[in-house]
Specification:
Length: 566
Amino acid sequence: MKIEVLVSNATQQVETDWVSAPRQIRGQDQLGCQAPCELTYSQLLPGITNVTDRARYFSFYPWVAWSLDKRFPAANEDRYVELYRRADCLYTLIAAQESKTSGSVRQAEAMIGRLRLLPALDRLTSGTPLRLSDYATQEESDERYFKNRMGGLGQYYVGSLAELGVCAKAPSGPWIKYTEEFGKVLANSFDSVLPSDAFWAAVELDVITIEDLIALKDFSPHLLKDGSDEQDLLLDMFFVRKGYSDRVGNLRGLQRRQTLALILNLADSLSPSNEIWLSEWTFRPIVYSGALSNGVAWDVPPSLVETRKLWSIYERNDLLSCACLIVFAASLNQLRQEASDDFTHYESVESFSEHFAVNANFRGALESLEANTFADLVERVQSSGPSLARWEDPMHEFSLEDQLVADWYAQKKPPHHLIASAILLLASLAGRHADFPSAYGNLLIQAEDLETYPINLVSFHNRSAAWASAPLSDVAKDLIGWCLNTHLTVALRKLWQTRTSSFHIRPAENGLQVIGDIPPPTRTLPRIRQSLRILEDLGALKEHESDPGRLLLTALGKALLEESIV
């Protein structure tokens, strides 16, 4: 399209085109405040992610790549992908059948494509034939097990396998390459103890029976043989033992070993008769506070003390993040509510935050905190609140966070109540400053890493110092403005970088407008659940016989712990 424009009293033609509106996305981490948490746990558990749940996939996938090279060297790209996808489906079906046979649901958990393949197994049990190709298809289908061309490997595991020096994506095409140094060794160990010929015969035949799945049960991820080369190699890799480091020359996983050892130590410290079970949701407050329960100190070995402190920094940042996301969501709720009730609009974030902070209901909520200034509130929390070790107390910051999230989802508390509660949580964090390493301690997080994430432990410390003598209404005004303006900054940067819009608020001709659904406040997920599952698959943890879900330390786990803390 050509248009004429007047430039310096002369008419010029300019060629232009219509520009479509950016695609609207829901987005994640609306304030960028979760990013420092992710930077932290990625250093503490390298090689394990929030989608790498099962230990044996770390040997299964290099074995599949190695087997395809060995058995089908002339396979073209389409044939390679088809065989790979069938193998991926068959592996999940084997685990699902073994889970049904044993009666343990956990054995089929976190398997690739299980939501499509479990119903397929039910139909097979009732007599309906099952073709792997129906589920391995890449065509749009209700039966397709996975959209990504290379299934669970391409979507979830290839990054971790590359980081660990096991596999790598080929420069072009779908081919996955195993490394000679470690991937091939791991694949050979997998192949040598399993009925590999029968597995690939089933893949090629395509039609699967229950009898086939039962005959292949040893492939199940929870049936890793104790003392096998495969188990030893996986332990070498996850715990960065000499058998791995000598081959790969990769010591970047040393912090992973420390974290896994810390988990095993916690399992050892929790008595089988204790009401507190080992899980992600008990690990978090315990590692934050350094106490098991009821104020009982956690006796952490000296070599793991620093790792425990680094995890406490992560948890501290996550508490800060959750409080700010509550403030953001509650502010959006208030904005939308006022626009709906009486068509009130605000020309800027500052005018809204200033008006909201002096709202009569909000003033009442702030008065319930029984403090005039932020410093008064911090002092009150320090003097009358629970000690750091008493994380089960309702007024402890962990309990305050739980209650805040519950209140948000219950939708029974008004925005002013939620923001006042968030300020109480922030005061609790400010009052604990001396109990934690400064900012990010010895983590490899530099000032430049935080430049694009304005809400972090460093900025919070500076902000809380500036709030000290301020009335709580001024603190509320600044906090609301901080969260809303940070969202605008983060969303604008995302628009520039990705050409997608994640705005939940924007200035308009008639004032600020709330866009789309209000994003719920969420905690970050620090890969602890995946680590627990991996340790269980490896045989370092096991389920209590009479208490399903309760994890106990095994003799192997004890030996790994002792080896790791020397």
